[in-house]
Amino acid sequence: MSKFRVEERNDWRCWVTxxxxxxxxxxxxxxxxxxxxGEMVYALCDEWGVDHNxxxxxxxxxxxxxxxxxxxxxxxxxxxxxxxxxxxxxxxxCADYDLRRIEMMWQxxxxxxxxxxxxxxxxxxxxxxxxxxxxxxxxxxxxxGRNIADxxxxxxxxxxxxxxxxxTLPSFSRAVAAGGWLRWVSKRNGVLSIPxxxxxxxxxxxxxxxxxxxxxxxxxRADKADARSLPDKEGTYSAVITSPPYPNRHDxxxxxxxxxxxxxxxxxQTRRLRYQSFHSHPEARPERPMxxxxxxxxxxxxxxxxxxxxxxxxxxxRIIEMIDGYFLDMYLVxxxxxxxxxxxxxxxxxxxxxxxxxxxxxxxxxxAEVGEQAGLECKKxxxxxxxxxxxxQMGKYGRHPSRESVVVFRKP
Length: 412
Ligand SMILES: C[S@@+](CC[C@H](N)C(=O)[O-])C[C@H]1O[C@@H](n2cnc3c(N)ncnc32)[C@H](O)[C@@H]1O
Prior knowledge:
By secondary structure, the chain is of the alpha/beta class. Helix content is 41%, strand content 17%. The protein has helices at residues 38-48, 65-72, 84-94, 99-112, 127-132, 137-149, 155-168, 194-211, 252-255, 257-263, 267-276, 301-312, 317-340, 363-373, 391-397, and strands at 6-8, 56-58, 77-81, 175-178, 181-184, 220-224, 237-242, 341-352, 354-356, 359-361, 377-387, 402-410. Helix 7 crosses helix 8, helix 12 packs antiparallel against helix 13 (317-340) and helix 13 (317-340) packs across helix 14. The structure holds S-adenosylmethionine.
C-alpha cells in the first residue's frame, strides 16, 4: 500500500511516450527517446490553472517539449539541460522567425549544396564520428555544416538549418541508437541521398512554420545548466513540468554521441558531460553541490529495501551505486526546484519505475519520499501507463510490468 495518493490516468498513457510527437508540427523537428508530449503539459496547466501570468520551469529540457507547449499556450517558460544538443533543439523550436528570411536563406543554401565539393572533413573529428560516418559521409556532413555556417543571417536563423542537419545524421550513421546503446550496422544510406534527405527535413520545418499560428513575443529561455544547481533566484517559478532521465542505464551522451561530437564538442568534453550527468547510468560520477549538513538527505526505507534485495540477488556494485546516486540526485533536483519556486507552486516529475534482477525499484514512490524530504508536499502519483519488463528479465523473473507515473508536488 502506498502512503501517497495514487490515481490511475490511463488516458495519459500515450502522453508519456514520444510517439505522438512524430506527427506534431514543430515538436517533430527533433525528438528525444524519452520525450513526453505537449498534451501532457497542456493538461497539467489546465488542471493547475496555470496561465500567461505564470512562469514554468523545465530543468531537464530534452527536446524542449515543455518549453514549446508553454509557448503554444502563451505561458512564459524556461528550460535548462546539461546537453548542448538539447539546448539547441529547444531554442530552435521556440524561436520567432521571419519566415521570408528563412526561405531566402534556404534558397541560398540549396544553391551551394553540392556533393561534388564535399571533399573530406575540414577538421579532425573524434574516432566515433569517423567510424559512424565512413567514406565520403563525414566530408559531406562537414561540408554541409560549413555551407550553413557561411550562410550569413543571424545565429538563430543558421541554427534552424543546423538542427535539420543534426536530425538528418541518424539516417546515415553506422552507429544506430538501440535502447540505451549504439549498435553498429554496415549498410545505410549513401552520400548522394544527403541533399534529398536534408531538403525534405528543411521543407517539413518550413511547412510547419508556414502553418503555425504560435504566439510570438512569449517569454521563453533555453540555457545550459545542471538541474542540481540552477542560476535562478528564489521564488522565480510558479510551476515545474519535467522528466529527469530514468534509472535504466541509458546514457544520453552515448545515444547522442555522434551528434554531440559532430556538432558541439570533442571526446574529452563528451566524457566530462557523461560523468556530470544525472546518476541514471553507471558511468556517471557527478560533482554534486555541497550539502549544508549530512543530515539533509536520509536514504528512504523503500530504497534501502530495494538496494538490499538487489545486493542479495548479486547485482553488480556499479548498478547499486547508480540506484543510490540516482535518488541523491533526485533529492538535490527537487530541493533546487523547490528553492526556485514560489509558495503554492505545482511541480510534476515524470518518472519510470525500474527492475533489476527481478527486484522492483518503485521510482515514483521513492521520488515522492525524497521530494518531501526536500520540503515539498507530494499531492499524488498519477499512473499513466505500465511497461512490460525486458524479454530477458521476463524470461528469468516472470512478467512484472513497471509503471510510469507523474509525481505531483506542491511547494507548501
Ligand atoms: C528524459 S530527458 C527529457 C525529455 C524531455 N522531457 C522531452 O520531452 O524531450 C532527460 C534530459 O535530462 C538531461 N540531463 C541529464 N543530466 C542532467 C543534469 N544534471 N542537469 C540537467 N539536465 C540533465 C539529458 O541531457 C536529457 O536531455
